[in-house]
Amino acid sequence: MAxxxxxxxPFARPGGAAVTSPxxxxxxxxxxxxxxxxxxxxxxxxxxxxxxxxGVPPFRGPGGLWTKHGEPPMDGYQRFLADPxxxxxDILSRQGEHSExxxxxxxxxxxxxxxxxxxxxKLGFLKHIITQNIDNLHQEAGSVAITEIHGNRLKLRCxxxxxxxxxxEFATDEIPPRCPHCQGIIKTDTVMFGEPIPLDAxxxxxxxxxxxxxxxxxxxxxxxxxAAEFPVIAFRxxxxxxxxxxxxxxxxxxxxxxxxxxxxxxxPNLVERLKELSGAGAG
Length: 283
Ligand code: APR
Fold this sequence. Notes:
By secondary structure, the protein is α/β, with parallel strands linked by helices. The protein has helices spanning 22-38, 65-69, 76-82, 84-93, 100-107, 112-122, 137-141, 199-211, 229-236, 263-277, and strands spanning 42-46, 126-131, 146-148, 155-158, 164-166, 186-188, 214-218, 240-244, 257-259. Helix 1 (22-38) crosses helix 10 (263-277), helix 6 packs parallel to helix 10 (263-277) and helix 8 runs parallel beside helix 9. The protein binds adenosine-5-diphosphoribose.
């Protein structure tokens, strides 16, 4: 199975962990719980799949936005830089017009998987979440230690100093709005196609990937870089990968446990099993 751009994983292990029967899902759940319980520093890499049960479509695979509409042009950021004033005028003029994706995002609520991740953090089992999602659902579920590698739909960011503000904190009578600290241009925090990942977010992701001894891969196809690099960094440093995804990905073969199920259905079971293992469930 090729990882984005035709590369085959340099660490593939033959005879991967294809999981089908319910009993083996039970066995994989037990394996996953014991790995996390024994882990000193578990983090998670999260993708669009975790929000599917909140009504937000994924990008690839069945029902994916790109599957349905094709991938968008990759030069969104270059077009923004070419005329930020026109870009702002355009989005302000189209306020209230919501694409299928934006409408789904604005109506979405955290689901049982987001809640389970917040619980794992509170129980001390999950140290950090790297999310590729812009939907703010982890925060709404109560998670705290989060790096949003693709930004957050409810924030603005200065492209020069990376300072961020809640949406609506800036008057847009002067467009493009300017950063009060460095006079840099302000845009939405979400990372556009063609835009470099903000350095502070990238460094945080790389740091967490180097620190972890276990990485949960929740609802990501693991084909988009640089996010797809983080499991490679972790794996090469001896970390165990645990995949939570109803479909196979390029990382299934090298995952120590594979929960082949929707995250919202299986993750609450993982929390319960970990509570039992740590006696937290014993009240
Ligand atoms: N629970 C868990 N996983 C799920 C669920 C579910 N209920 N439903 C679907 N999935 C899985 C799919 O099988 C797929 O592997 O989620 C994955 C979603 O993959 P993508 O749509 O490719 O999303 P993602 O990996 O987040 O994409 C990365 O690509 O287009 C860019 O910026 C966009 O952040 C996005 C990035």
